[in-house]
Amino acid sequence: MYLKFFNLKRSPFEITPDPSFLFPTRRHNEALATLYYGVERRKGFVVLTGEVGTGKTLLLRCLLQLLKYRKDTEYAYVFNGRLSPIEFLQYVTADFGLPAANKNKTELLLELVRYVIARSQKNLTNVLVVDEAHHLSADILEEIRLLTNLETSNAKLLQILLVGQPELDEKLDSIELRQLKQRIAFRAHLLPLDLSETEKYIERRLQLAGADSRGLLLFPAPTSAAVYRHSRGIPRLINTICENALIAAYAKQVQFVTPEIIESIATDFRLGVVRQPQPEPPKASSTDDIDVRKAARMLLELMQKPPAAVQ
Ligand SMILES: Nc1ncnc2c1ncn2[C@@H]1O[C@H](COP(=O)(O)OP(=O)(O)O)[C@@H](O)[C@H]1O
Ligand SMILES: [Mg+2]
User: Pocket around ligand 1: residues whose beta carbon is below 6 Å from it?
Assistant: First the structure.
């Protein structure tokens, strides 16, 4: 409804994770590059964590888009961690396009293992991606550990990406799962944006929504500082605040958002509590042989200009 008033072509602050809206912070770039290279180099097991709303699912969608360009790669994408072990295996098997109906656990595992081995013999890449992985039960994580055993002397046959909230790290730290933790080849962690990133994030989304030079001034510096304060730099909250701010500005028929509008939205959404920024997690694994910055640049170019097929 406000699009016409602000002369925008589409909604700038939707909360669905849309890869075309990716704002590439250094963290997001490096995390995407880590996931991509973990798969490409067949390193086996990669973990991405981040607080709710920091952009994990968005990054996964970007990754899956990149993997679609690769004709040598097939993936199964589980986006719900709350499954029983049999449901999990059924889902993964079916998502790889294999027959899964009326099969017991052993049959499903056999189906999967046969498929992965046959494709690996043809030098093809297989990826299992699990979002919301902090919900996975210990039983499923144990199945996943067994799947990480599929390997030759120099490569893993199934690439496994687990993505979830920081509780996932806590799960992997537990005594029972220490064997799985030891297999993590790469790890990445997303953090909220800082003030300057928040300002640029807002501007970038307005630009992608078709804002003209006047539209780009919708959130002047004191306003985006207020958005930062109340969102703590968490992209999902930035989107929610900014979307509501545009609606409020439209209701008032004003041409830009004032800090007072942000304050009143923060009160409505009870965003008053300011938490301390999270500490950097320890670097548990080696990203030493990856030039992540270079990789990230290349991936961004690839996302903007997809080739017919990348080998
Ligand atoms: N780097 C980013 N660039 C653009 N939008 C982002 C970025 N990070 C997060 N978002 C947006 O924030 C919202 C929440 O992201 P999402 O991936 O669902 O978070 P998570 O999965 O970590 O909870 C989505 O609308 C997403 O598009
Ligand atoms: Mg998510």
Answer: 15-18, 21-23, 25, 28, 50, 52-58, 235-236, 239
